[in-house]
Every structure is written in C-alpha cells, then in structure tokens.
Specification:
The protein is an alpha/beta fold and 328 residues long. It folds into three domains: 35-186, 3-Layer(aba) Sandwich (Alpha/beta knot), CATH 3.40.1280; 201-264, tRNA(m1g37)methyltransferase, domain 2 (Trp Operon Repressor, Chain A); 265-328, no CATH class. 36% of the residues lie in helices and 12% in strands. It has eleven helices and nine strands. It has helices at residues 53-60, 97-107, 129-137, 153-159, 175-186, 197-200, 234-252, 254-262, 275-285, 292-301, 309-327, and strands at residues 35-40, 65-70, 83-84, 94-95, 117-126, 140-145, 162-165, 219-220, 223-224. The strands form three sheets. A five-stranded parallel beta sheet has the order 2-1-6-5-7. The chain starts with 34 loop residues before the first strand and ends with a helix.
Length: 328
C-alpha cells in the first residue's frame, strides 16, 4: 500500500535566512498560501490559540501558514541586545532601528504582491471587520509585535508601516493582539469555516451588530425562544433578525449605527442640510407636506433617521411620499 502524497507536494518554497535552520523540525513553506509572518521576542507564544479549533485545523491542512521571526536573532553584541534608552530621556526602553530593520528585511524576503507590513500599536488605526477582509484578500501579512516603549519612529517612516490597534488600551506586547488579528482574518479565507454564510450573516458584515441567536431546548429556566423563530416563516424570521440587529446596534454602538444609517439614505436627500435645500426638494418632488415644526419634532424622536434634522425631515417626507404613491 503506497503512502499518501503530502499536502505540500508541488507547493514548496524556499526563503533565504541569516539564521541556521532546524531542518528536522521546521515546517515546510507552502507556495501560494496566505501566510502570517510574525516578528516577535517570544516566538514560542505562537501559534497559541491559533493552533486550536478551526484555525488550527486549517493550519494543519495547509490552508494558511504561520512563520515566526525571532527578533533576538538580529540583536547587537554578545547578548543580542534589541533595545536602548529613549533619545531625550524618559522611562523604559525603545526597540533599536538597526535591529528591527534587519528583522524586517529578513521577514519580507519572498513577499509578493499585496503583502502589508503591520505594527501592533495602541496609537494605530482601530482594527475592524473591513480591515480583516482586506488582509484576507492579500497574499499574506508581516506583523511586528512591539515591546517596551515601542519602536524607533524612523523604522515606521522608512518602511511605511501600517499601525493597527485593537482599542483604546495598552498591553505589555503585541503578541496577543497579533493573534486576534490573525484569527479574525484567517476565518475569512476560503475553506476555513466551510460555510460561507457563517461570515455573511454575522456582526459587522453589513455594518450592524448580529441579531440574537437561540437553540434547543425551546424553553430554558423560564426563558422561551421567540415565537417568530419557531414559526417556520422565513420572511418574518429575516425581518425580525434585521430589526433586532438595527436595535442592538443603535443602543450599544451608536457610532456604527450612525455610519450604517447614512448608507440607507435616498440619493435625493443626501444634500439636504438646511431649510433652503429642504424647501427646494419639497417644491420639486412633493405636492404637499405637514407643518415643518411638526416634522422636526417627529424627526428628532425617530431612532432610524439621520441626526441632522433637515436631512431627517427630508428622508421622512421622501419615505412618506413613496408610501402614498404605492397606495395610490
């Protein structure tokens, strides 16, 4: 009985390295596979949780690849120093530009096409689902895990590094943040989740938070599954889920809600931001309208209308005109 052909057959790639390789234990590099390369002082922290569950299974199956670059290997002197005191004085230590530059040059060897270079930093742009989608569409990503007081600014400027943050808080290093970013990205790669709908109908996929989820038993400790979900009426279920997504987003994430509802506006009312523009719209497109004061009061109390009162009135009237036309 012949042995099975390895999954990496015909896809191996070779990258030059300044550091001696452990040829017996080093994983085979696969060509054409989305790859995350991590520059870190703690390579043993990886894959960590990424080696479990669906991401771990996909890693074993060669659907994505993880490479770690030990920053210490590029350090200065006998003790492989990677940091020094901050210029101008101050507490803590800063990662040296010469050390980090050598590590980056090594990590970016063989990178082809769209391959972002990212630094996990509390001052970076906040990571979100859209960013995960863009990373998943790239060929791979190289991530720098910061430590101490951060990295010499000249490195960021020289390489045009993109800084990414998980939120408005500070961690001791970028390793956990890198794993979070990789997890959010890898699950979007083809074949990792198995069911494409799993990523299409979850939080942030359409700019809204996900609706509540339920499963058996139908009643638990006096709490029942909403009747609409047990009705079998797919149209009503979809409508309920949309309404719940909108309500949860409006209450918990007003920032997301404000951005999401802008996309729901009709083109005709996007530029209505004052009485003159509203008057022109009404005269041009609507035969009659309720009193302006009444409409402003309704608009200010309406949860799904834009915050700008004039734009809100315009949308309200526009929707009303549409309903009247359908009834006629």
């Amino acid at each position: 009985m012949s042995a099975k052909t390895p999954k990496s057959h015909g896809r191996k790639s070779i990258r030059p390295t300044l550091v001696p390789r452990d040829l017996m234990n080093e994983p085979t590099a696969l060509a054409g596979v989305w790859t995350a390369r991590i520059i870190t002082l703690f390579p043993k922290a990886f894959p960590g949780v990424l080696g479990e569950s669906l991401t771990g299974k996909a890693l074993d199956e060669g659907k994505w690849q993880l490479d770690t670059v030990n920053l210490r290997d590029f350090g200065e002197g006998k003790h492989r120093n990677v940091d020094d005191t901050p210029a101008g004085g101050g507490a803590g230590m800063v990662l040296r530009p010469d050390v980090m530059g050598r590590a980056i040059d090594h990590a970016m060897q063989g990178a082809r096409g769209a391959w972002p270079l990212v630094y996990l930093s509390p001052r970076g742009r906040r990571f979100d689902q859209r960013m995960a989608e863009r990373l998943a569409q790239a060929q791979g990503v190289t991530m720098i895990c910061g430590r101490f007081e951060g990295m010499d600014e000249r490195v960021i400027q020289h390489y045009g590094i993109q800084e990414i943050s998980l939120g408005d808080f500070v961690m001791t290093g970028g390793e956990l943040a890198a794993q979070a970013v990789i997890d959010a990205t890898v699950r979007l790669l083809p074949g990792v989740l198995g069911n494409a709908e799993s990523t299409e109908n979850e939080s942030f996929s359409d700019g809204l938070l996900e609706h509540p989820q339920y499963t058996r038993p139908a009643e638990w400790r006096g709490h029942k599954i909403p009747d609409v979900l047990m009705s079998g009426h797919h149209g009503e279920i979809a409508k309920w889920r949309q309404q719940m997504s909108e309500e949860i987003t409006r209450l918990r994430r007003p920032d997301l809600w404000s951005a999401a509802r802008e996309g729901l506006l009709d083109d005709a009312v996007r530029d209505v931001r004052g009485p003159e523009a509203l008057s022109a719209l009404l005269q041009a497109r609507l035969a009659s309208a309720p009193g302006l004061e009444q409409m402003l009061a309704v608009a200010n109390a309406h949860p799904t209308l834009p915050r700008d009162p004039w734009m809100a009135v315009a949308q309200f009237l526009w929707d009303a005109a549409g309903r009247d036309a359908k009834q006629a």
